[in-house]
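As a warm-up, study this chain.
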Amino acid sequence: MTSATAPAGPVPVELGAGSPGLGSASRGPRFRPPRHLADLDQAGRRAAVAELGQPGFRADQLSRHYFARLIDDPAEMTDLPAGLRGELAAALLPPLLTAQRELECDGGTTRKTLWRALDGALVESVLMRYPDRVTMCVSSQAGCGMGCPFCATGQAGLTRNLSAAEIVSQVFAGAKAMARGQVPGGPGRLSNVVFMGMGEPLANYASVLTAVRRITEPAPGGLGLSQRAVTVSTVGLVPAIRRLAGEGLAVRLAVSLHAPDDELRDDLVPVNRRWKVAEVLEAAWGYAAATGRRVSIEYAMIRDINDQGWRADRLASLLAGQLAHVNLIPLNPTPGSKWTASDPRVAAEFLDRLADRGVPVTVRDTRGTQIDGACGQLAAAS
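Now compare it with the structure written out below.
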């Protein structure tokens, strides 16, 4: 983050192809990553190998290697004819992201990776290993166009949407690292994916939806994670929330609210100037009703900005009786910011006020602050 001052005017909301509402998420010529296995369903993969003059079962073999065995090196695909491996891999497994740098903390169990895409765009992902689970936080865009003033990513601006395969590649890398014992604690399995990295996921709706399906479809169609273990975050793009509610998915929705009143939220989350708090929450309750999943309400605790007792009471009145859970997030430090996290005593009172009104609430266990890998800190600095 370069400044703690809210933008003077409304921030345009730019939805990617296939998204409800608006147009392209990039300025100028649009870069299109090459086609990848993860962009396609099984029928599309079979059609792609047919274009190469190969039988459909070759697509099934590639799918098993990539999604079930976590293999993307053609040299390891020994059940494929040696003369075909390079051709098939070039056509359906092109390398989309290259790791530029990895930073670790928590004894190596928290790992942030800086990725460079083929056009030079930079994104970051974070793997977090806990005693009972392994969570991958992935980016859906290079940068972000939402302009939230307390978020380093939002202040950097938007470069472009990521393709579905570029998103899945981040998850694949985390799953592969776990399976091969490259994270302290021995071999294991990736269990959770959260779309809380760089970008506004619902502003890249089509790619994110495809990525969710690839992440959750059983192998060899996909990586086989439970839909209930996937969380899609949004600052509140109401048409996209409503559309997501009709997709028949069981993923969790997380709404980055950060203020219960429109006056403050207009500044903290500029898209609120288009869709107000009441509209965002109405769409969220519709999602909860359609899916039966509890909605996560994300609330960054910012000292003397949004942590007053009366705001806790107002938030409680908005959420009481709804299928919702509040995550209070101590504001993470970002370069140049004049804002800081709430005093722990103030945060505790805020939590108590919500709990006393029957609102489920917890303080998020923030990881990765030492490597600028926590919520709001991802800036993909090279």
